[in-house]
Structures are given as C-alpha cells and as structure tokens.
Design a protein that fits this description.
The chain has a four-stranded mixed beta sheet with strand order 1-2-3-4. By secondary structure, the protein is of the alpha+beta class.
Length: about 120
C-alpha cells in the first residue's frame, strides 16, 4: 500500500520498515481492508504519552473516499484509550488536508531531501 501511495519502488519502501523496526514492542500497525485486500496503513510508535504517526498511506484507487480519515481517527482513538495525549508526524503536502481535518497543527515547515521521487513531496 505504501509503495503505491507514495509511488515508490517496493524495495525502497521495504527499507523504511525493516524487520527490527516492525518487531518493536512500542509499535502498532493499523490496516484498513476493503474488497478483500489491504487499502490503507498507518504505523504508530509510542513513547510515554506521546505517539508518533508514521507510514500513513492509502491505496491510490481508494484515496478521497474517507479510508485514511477513518483509519487514522480509529487508530488515534485506540491510542488515546491506552494513554496517548499527544501525536506528532511529518507530512507531505498530500497529507495536509487530512491532518488538518483531524486537528493536527503545523509547528515547523522544512525541506527534506531524499533520493528518488515519491510524487507526493
């Protein structure tokens, strides 16, 4: 899902989430399913009462249909029920409308240089 959402090669996307990262005890991965396939994903990392939001993506065919909003708001509600009081994330321009709707506030705007192109920067 992330490779398609960010228009990145699958191997490049896989390097962002190595097995050591995925086995962390302070990590939760939330999936959205539809039409018998995964159509959305978001990963949370936890440190005390602060939760980081990583790797948020929706299948391009499903974007604009509320999948990302339902997925992220459900995951945030679950994290709050477990003690999260704050959330943080880094966003691409494509993500700003969703995060704004869910109450995120921009604190810093910066340029991040990466190898290759995601089509979402």
């Amino acid at each position: 899902v992330l490779a398609a959402a960010f228009k990145m090669p699958l191997d490049a996307t896989a390097r962002c989430f190595p097995p050591t990262f995925m086995s962390s005890p302070d990590l939760d991965v939330y999936l959205a399913a539809g039409d018998d396939r995964i159509v959305g994903v978001v990963t949370f990392t936890h440190h005390g009462d602060t939760t980081g939001v990583w790797g948020m993506g929706t299948d391009p065919e499903m974007q604009g249909q509320g999948v990302g909003r339902r997925l992220l708001s459900t995951a945030m509600a679950e994290a709050r029920s477990l003690g999260a009081e704050r959330f943080f994330l880094g966003a691409t321009r494509a993500g700003y409308p969703l995060y704004d709707k869910l109450g995120y506030q921009t604190r810093v705007v910066t340029t991040v240089w990466v190898s290759g192109e995601t089509g979402q920067a």
